[in-house]
Amino acid sequence: MNSRRVLWSALGAVALVAGVGGAWIFSLPPASSAAAPPAITQDERDATVAALKPPKRQRPLIAIIGINDATETILMPYGILKRADVADVVALATKPGPVTLYPTLKVEPHATTAEFDAQHPDGADYVIVPAMSRDDDPAALQWIRSQAAKKAIIIGVCVGAKVVGDAGLLHGKRATTHWYSIKELRGKHPTMRYVEDRRLVVDDGVATTTGITASMPMSLTLIEAIAGPDKARAVGRDIGLADWDARHESDAFKFTRPFALTAIRNTVAFWAHEQLGIELKGGVDEVSLALVTDAWSRTYRSQAVTFASSAGAQHSRGGLRILPDQVAANWPAARLLPSVADRKPAEALDDALQGIAARYGTQTTDFVAMQLEYPRHRAAP
Fold first, then answer.
1. Which residues does 112 contact at the CB level (< 8 Å), separation at least 6?
2. Which of 158, 297, 339, 362 is 20 to 30 Å from 104 by CA-CA measure?
3. pLDDT (tens digit, 9 = 90+) per residue, 236-263?
4. Alpha-carbon distances, residue 304 vs 125, 131, 158 (angstroms)
5. In sequence order, which residues have a C-beta less than 8 Å from that of residue 58 and are 6 or more positions away?
6. What are the catalytic residues?
7. How confident is the model at residue 29 (pLDDT cuts 50, 70, 90)?
8. Is-contact 105 290, C-beta < 8 A?
9. CB 244, CB 214: distance < 8 Å
10. Confidence of residue 4 (pLDDT cuts 50, 70, 90)
11. Which residues contact 177 (CB under 8 A, 6 or more apart)?
């Protein structure tokens, strides 16, 4: 009798959880908006560019900071800004050793923040802050505050805005962040004024962006501020973005029923999870590599890893040392991702999304694009 009672209690608990979960899923909106983003006036564009003008040097110094245990990819802003060759760009870590990037890849930074301070006591012109595994890392926050005090422009990419906020730099400022973290950011920093329908917001020495793919328009806007519109357009064409600005359709990115169901379905199908390999070669375009491996690692069905014939780091196109995840001479053909060697970064991402659609279905493609906060008109397979 006792065992039967336990069984029925367990089944009742499962049914209750399923019922509550089903009600929650049903309460979610069935789809997000697909409207065209509102236009941006030329006056607003000009004001954004003017607010990002180099504060100190004619050839600016740009520092991208990460914490060693887990930092969202630094490769996108790094690679775009390096190829522009209008500033000196360095990747930093709070401690010695490599930086593990989320959700994939591992890099060797150029220096620690302490080493940077010794070499540049007057600070950087710009500090780019990506998302980190913790928003309140004491060393990172202290260093970001010190750079702001030295008049560096602080740029929080994606949920790097939460780190910037914890550094105390969003009080009373207009800002944005990844769609999933807007409520949290506003709750922690009630004086911050959230701006919708913009991928990039600049206010009094602090810039913030929406999801990680906003690194592309953010970097191009920064290039325009440093070197002018012709240079920015040339780099935009080089990375596959002929048209770009800060326009955004915020309502297109939200937690929907298809998003939740895809996350659940792909997670529970653990028997179908797979590890996909992409060969790491010297001279690889770090922006394309980051976009492709990031996309494939957000399906909840696959994890992208790099492999090389030796454990040594490979120098990327922009001179950053990237460490392979695995040492292997080759990879099974059925789980080998195409090389990114000949693809412009934005095109490489579109190709990856099309590949995800072919392998896992269009709902997973939409799921990945939503996480990357990538505009749907480009993400459609």
1. 92, 93, 94, 95, 96
2. 362
3. 999 999 888 999 999 999 999 999 999 9
4. 34, 20, 21
5. none
6. 158
7. confident
8. yes
9. no
10. very low
11. 156, 158, 159, 161, 162, 185, 208, 209, 210
